[in-house]
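Recap from last week: sequence in, structure out.
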Amino acid sequence: MHAWLCQNPTGVDALTWTELPTPQPGAGEVLIEIKAASLNFPDLLIVQDKYQVKPPLPFVPGSEYAGVVQAVGDGVSHLQVGQHVACLSGTGGFATHTLAPAALCMPLPADFPFVDAAAFIMIYATSYHALADRAQLQAGETVLVLGAAGGVGTSAIQIAKALGARVIAAASSDEKCALCTSIGADATINYSTQDLREALKLLTGGKGPDVIYDPVGGDLAEPAFRSIAWRGRYLVVGFAAGSIPALPLNLTLLKGASIVGVFWGGFAKNEPKANASAMAELARWYAEGIIKPVIDRTLPMVELKAAYARMGSRGVKGKLVLVNDGQRA
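Predicted structure tokens:
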């Protein structure tokens, strides 16, 4: 097997495409032949030693992937050799093969493409947990999605629409706004050229959005929160802008609003039955065509560094996916 090995987490340039022995699964594990793996923001942080989880060295980055089960370890009964699966295990995905905890593998129907499956769990599980569970989003409410053309942003648009909400998508270019419209956004704001607060006043008749979905953080957080509706819910999803904002807490008092943390990983660990139910619902929605990952492009696995560079350029719309064995979309 081959894998992108991180022996020193000083950045993307330190990764090396390395030949390694193909491992055998231990108890509770499966060996997966990886067909596709998506690039997520934590995959950038983890090779810079900036992520909250710091795996022991050396490690193979790549948190989310899909492929075919090649071998199963002792105690694994719900998966079998030849089965198609998707997995979000945190590491191991940027390779031709990996060992994965069987409990973290999502069995796939035969007609679920590997490229879509590799870009599915993280964004849709996060957005469903955020909007349906943490925000308790109701049909007819208005949702503002920041960073709306990114992976979690595009998934949030689709899920909010599936739940019956009106969606305002905010992104950094007209091209990205057009993408958001094409997947269901009711209105868009280009915050590179428009004043966010003024645009929200106009689009909501002065009321403001009921729910704000924020995977970006940074300078947009405070003006967005100042625009929130009475009893609004501000979802803290991530900090793709790089800086963690400090919101004046008096604003929560004045608006009767809530700041709500969204940590899908903790939810899945602490509430596995609720998470399993949510994943089943998402799988049904995919089968019915209600949701579908937006794929920016696919690249061969050996071009991982080019994928990282594209992510760093802020030009990605949806998800970047690395592929093995001719799985390019």
